[in-house]
Amino acid sequence: MGIIKKMHYKSKLILCYLVLVSFPLILCLVLLYQSIVKPVRENAVSAIDQRLDQELNTINSKIEKIRNVSYLVSTNTVINKFFVPKFYGDLELIEILNNDISPLLSWLEASSPEISYYHFFTNNPSIPETQYLHQYDDYRSEPWMQEMEHSIFDKGFYLEPCHINRSYSYGYGGEEQMVYSLFYPLLTSNNFLEVCIKPSVFFEDMKTIPAMESGFVAAVNSDGKIISDLPAEVTADFRHSLEERLMEGDCLSDSNKGPFLVSLAQTEYLISIKQIGSLDSWILCAVPGAEIDGPVLKAQQLFTLVILAAAIGIVLLSYLLSTLLIRKINTIIDAVHKIQEGDFHVAIPVNGEDEIDQLATDINYMSFKINELINRVYKARMLQKETELSALQAQINPHFLFNILDTFKMIAIIHDLDDFSDSIAALGNLMRYNISPASYHCTLEHELQIIRDYINIQNLLLNNRVTLLLSVPDNLLRFEIPNFILQPIIENSFVHGFENKLSELIIKVTIYRGDSSIIIKIEDNGTGISAEQQQMLTAAMKKSTETLEVEPLSLEPQEKESSRSGKSIGILNVNLRLFLLYGRHYSFTFSSSDLGGACNTISLPVSIPTKEQEENFLNERSKL
C-alpha cells in the first residue's frame, strides 16, 4: 500500500486500467482452464479409479466363488459323517479314508484349482493326523485359531489375512509361501475346514494389463508388502522404495484417502489405493505423473504465451489513455503549486463537466475560502488563549480552600481537639487526592492511606464505631494500582451495608499476590449482598463494559428506593475504569464474607499499563 501511495497519478491510472482489463481476462482464462485443462487430469484419475474398481470386482467375484466351494465342502454329508464323534477302529478308519475321504478331497483339488490346500481340524482323538487331518486341541491356543473361532461365531466364516503357509504337526503344510486361509465350521461341533489360497489366484491378471501407458496395478498386505507379481520392468529397488513409502504416514490406514504423489527412483508417481475389505489387503495403481500432467503442462505453456501477449497489449493501451487524461491534471497541479506559494487568487480554466473539471472548480472555490479561514483561525486562537487564562484562574480556588482547611486544623490543635484535627487533615487529604492533578495510578501504600483518612472521617460521624483491619505484606506497598479504586468500594459498604446497624462496624482489607496477579479483598460485617443483588450487579457491570456508559443501579426494593440516594454507581465506575485499563485481564466479583457482610474481590495483573498506554487505549475507545 505504501508503494501505491508514492506512485504518480499516471502510474496509478495505468495500474487501474491493467486491473480492470486483466480481471475479466484472467477470469476467462480460469474458466477455460477449468473447462479444458483440469478435466484432463480428472479424467485420468477417474480412469485409474475405474481400473481399480474393475480389479476389485474381479477379486470379490473370486472370493465369492471360493466361499461357495468351501461352504459346499463344509456341508458335505460324507465329510460331516466322518467327523461325527465316535471311535474308529484301524481297519474301519483305513477303509473310510481310502474309499470315501481321500477320493473326495482329490476330486475337490482337481475341480477347484484356485484352492491350494484343504485342512480339517477335528476334536475326535481316534482320527489320526494326515496331510489333510489335524487335531483341534493341538492348535486351539494359537492366536489365529482363537481369532477364527471368534469370527465364525459372529459371521459364520473367517477369512484370515495373508500369512506364511503354516506347517502343521504332521509335517505337511505345503511349501513355504504367502497364502490366504478361509475357515468354515463343519456341521459337527468343534470341527473346522481350512482352505488355503495363494495370492496369485486373486491378483494374477493384474500385471498383464498396464495402467495407462507405463503404470501398473499391484496388491499390498497390511504390512505394506507387495504380494502380487509386478511387470518385468519394475526393479527390486523400485519395489522396495514403494513398500517403504506405503508404510509411512497413513497411506494404508486411511481407506478414504484420495490419489497422492510420491517420488520413486527420481520419478513422480500418482498412487491410488483401494481396500479389499474381506482380505484385509489393498490394491494400488501407480502411474508416472508425466503421463497425467503432460497434456496439462502443454496447455499451461500455451496459456502463458496468451497471457504475456495480452499483458503487453493492455500496457500499451493503458499508457495511451492515461497520457490523454493526465494533461488536465498537470494544469491543476501547477495551480496547486501556486497556492502553496501563497497565491490564493488562482483561477483554473474549466472547459468541461467531468470529474477533473469539477476538481478544478473545487480548487478555485478552496482558494477563495482560504483567506476567510485564515481570519477564523486567528480569532479561534485568541479565544483559546482566553480559555487557558480562565482555567489558570480556576485553579486558584481549590488552593484557597486547602489553606482554609489547614487554618481550621491549626485551630483544632491549639484547642486540643485531636479527633477534630485528624478529621480535618483526613478531609484535606481526600480533597487533594480528588481535586489535584495526578497520574493514572498510585502505590498501594498511598491508596491505603486514603482509606485510613476516609475511615477517620467516618469515625467522627459514627462516634468511633468503625474498625479498619488491614492485612498487606510490606513487599506489596510499592506496587502500583489505578488510583481511587478502593475508597468507592468501602464507601459502598457505609451506604448500603451499614444502614440501621448500631453495633461495631468492621472493614477488612486483605491484599496478597497470586501466581500472576494481585488479589484485593474488601469485606464488611454489614447486611451482606443477596444472590439476586449479585446477579443484578454482575449484569450491570457487563452492560457498562459493552456500552462504556454507567447507569445508576438500585439494589433496594421499590419501597426503600426513594429513601436511598446511593445507587451502587461507585462500584460500576470502578469496574468500568478497570475494564478500560486492563481489558479482559482483570476480575471483579462479589460473595458473602465470613464477617457476615459482603466481600468484594478484585484481581489485577502484576504489570499495569503506563500512562501513555492508558491514554492511547482511552483514545481508541473514544473512537468506537
Automatic annotation (TrEMBL):
Assigned keywords, A-Z: ATP-binding, Cell membrane, Kinase, Membrane, Nucleotide-binding, Phosphoprotein, Transferase, Transmembrane, Transmembrane helix, Two-component regulatory system
Which subcellular locations apply to this protein? Cell membrane
Matching Pfam families:
HAMP (PF00672), HATPase_c (PF02518), His_kinase (PF06580)
One GO location term (cellular component): plasma membrane
The superkingdom of the source organism is Bacteria
Which molecular-function annotation in GO is an example for this chain?
ATP binding
Alphabetical list of CDD domains matching this protein: HAMP
Q: Which InterPro entries match?
A: Bact_2-comp_sensor_kinase, HAMP_dom, HATPase_C_sf, HATPase_dom, Sig_transdc_His_kin_internal
Give all residue intervals belonging to the HAMP domain.
323-375
Indicate the transmembrane segments per the record: 12-33, 302-321
Instruction: List the SMART domains.
Output: HAMP
Give the way it sits in the membrane. Answer: Multi-pass membrane protein
Q: What is this protein called?
A: Multi-sensor signal transduction histidine kinase
Q: Which organism is it from?
A: Hungatella hathewayi
Annotated gene: ypdA_27
